[in-house]
Amino acid sequence: METTSHRVKDMIYISFFAIIIGICAWISIPAVIPFTLQTFGVFLTISVLGGKRGTLAIIVYLLLGMIGIPVYATGLAGIGILFGKTGGYMISWIFIGLIMWAMERIFGKKTWVQIVSMFFGLLLCYTFGTLWYYYLYASELGQVGIRTILGWCVIPFIIPDLIKIALAIFVQKRLVRFID
């Protein structure tokens, strides 16, 4: 049975890592889809907290932005951002958490499991987010080729996102001993 102090500790970790994702969102290079450290924050959160608490931290982060706290990229906030053209990427982070949660329950919380689950989560993020972006872009501004969308939304991010995964694993190895 879970003790009250354990639940309080979980809430503190979840809140802390939701804030970490928000701080990572403020570190940004402007582009059609801004280059941020948000995905690093997401991967770090899930790898340190595990799938369950990590997914909850992502949901808390998204809710904070939805209610108007400026935690999204470049200090933006509001439900319009989450359901705008780039919101599909942010919503997909919940599914990244669920993928990592499922894989750690099946295979354990081993480094190779985290790397593989982050890679699959990143593929899901690219797929879901890009389809979302494509649909909203086309409905607002007209059709554009899939190659163009991939050039805006995926190709420039592949190497930086792989670096973020490696960095998240590196930092997680140092933090995990302090988190229970």
Describe this entry's structure for a reader.
The longest helix has 31 residues, at 111-141. The protein has helices at 4-26, 38-66, 79-82, 87-107, 111-141, 146-153, 158-175; strands spanning 28-29, 35-36. Helix 2 (38-66) packs across helix 7, helix 5 packs across helix 6 and helix 5 (111-141) runs antiparallel to helix 7. It is built from seven helices and two strands; from the N terminus they run αββαααααα. It is mostly helical.
Summarize the entry for a quick read.
With 180 residues, this protein is an all-alpha fold. The chain contains 7 helices and 2 strands, in the order αββαααααα.
Order of helices and strands: HEEHHHHHH
Mean pLDDT score: 93
β-strand percent reads: under 5%
Side by side, the strands of the main sheet go 1-2
The percent of residues in helical segments reads: over 70%
Helix count from the secondary structure assignment: 7
The end-to-end distance, rounded to whole angstroms, is: 16 Å
Structural class: mainly alpha
* Rg measurement, Å: 16 Å
Number of strands: 2
Low-confidence stretches: none
Shape: globular
Can you summarize the main beta sheet? 2 strands, antiparallel
